[in-house]
Each structure stands twice: as structure tokens, then as C-alpha cells.
Amino acid sequence: MSIPDMNLRYTYSDYYSWDDGERWELIDGIPYAMSPAPTPSHQSICINLIIQIGDYLKGKPCKLFAAPFDVRLNAHREDNTVVQPDLAVICDHSKINDKGCIGAPDFIIEILSPSTAGHDRVVKLQQYLKAGVREYWIVDPDTKIVQIFILEGDRYFTTAYADTDIAPVSVLPGCEIILEDVFDI
Question: Which residues lie closer than 8 Å to 112 by C-beta, 6 or more apart?
């Protein structure tokens, strides 16, 4: 199969067989084309986050992964949702295999792009909540604001931090991200 038919619904096995050279995500069986290569500012922010989170995780059991990295959010049910977050931290090693992550990561970060902002703020937010992602960050390069969603029970509670703040990572006790350094692009 080369390009998925947008009128059909798919599963992970279909997704895995696509060989059109494009990057896709699958949300409730619906294919979404990934945007072209990220901008330099997007890449800089991602690298700055990797540096800080990676330094914190040295010698700790959790692992940090960057896109492209498949996360099968509902692999043990319908297996029809595969996302590629910009960054994912997984503390349960049984969720990691040679194709990506099976189940919800503990922590996901999405860095907004103009073409994906609505998708990240609405569609993915709901998918991450439904899957049980414990912490979700939306990083906005334009406003230099980070929205942090913390899972409590069956809903997210949100806070926002500016580029002059230090943002704590609740699922990684003691990890604090210096946002001035993140947005230093």
C-alpha cells in the first residue's frame, strides 16, 4: 500500500505496512500525514529539552525518546492509534520494544508548529488523556509558553509557565526545566 485512503479506518498492522516514504500518525484508525521537517527553532527547542531531561535521567531507569518514535497508545485494545510525539519519557521498560512504545509513556512533550498546533492542543490532548499519559507538555515556540497537563484521576489539571520560569516535571521528582535555556534559540 502506498498512501492510505482517508475514508477508511486502519490498525497498527496497516500503518506499519505503509511504505510511501511519508511519516504518518494514526488516531482512532484515521491516518494523519505528519508535517514536513521541523523548523530550526523547533529543532533547537527539542535539542535543548533533550539536553536538560537527558542530563536528569543519567543513571535513572526512565528512558527518553525523540521523534520519529512510534507510540501505540491503545496497543492492547483496538491498536488503532499510533502517534509520534516530539519527546517521550518511558519508565516501564516492558513498554519498549524494537518498534517503539506499547502503551502510554509517562511523559510526552509536543512542540507546536503552525500546521500541527490545533491537532496537538485538541486531538492529541484527548488521546493522551484517554491513554493515561501522566504528564503532557505543549511547548509554544511563538509565545514561549509551556502548558503542562498533569493527570489526576480521569482528567488533566493544567498550569502554564513562561520562558523566564523553571518548570517542574511532576513525574520525574527533582527534575526542573530551565525554560530560558529551552527557548534560547
Answer: 120, 121, 138, 139, 140, 141, 142
| Average pLDDT over the chain, rounded to an integer | 93
Q: Where are the beta strands (DSSP E) in the chain?
A: 24-27, 30-33, 63-66, 71-72, 82-83, 87-90, 96-97, 100-102, 107-111, 135-140, 145-152, 155-162, 166-168, 176-178
Rounded Cα distance, 185 and 167, in Å: 18
Mean pLDDT by 10 residues, the chain (185 residues): 74 84 86 83 97 98 96 92 96 96 98 88 95 97 97 97 98 98 93
- Listed in sequence order, the residues at least 6 apart from 121 whose beta carbon sits closer than 8 Å to its beta carbon are 112, 138
Residue 84 has what pLDDT?
94
**Partners of 139 in the β-ladder:** 111, 146
Q: Domains of the chain by range and CATH?
A: 39-70+83-182 (3.90.1570.10)
- The pLDDT assigned to 146 comes to 98
Cβ atoms of 110 and 123 closer than 8 Å: no
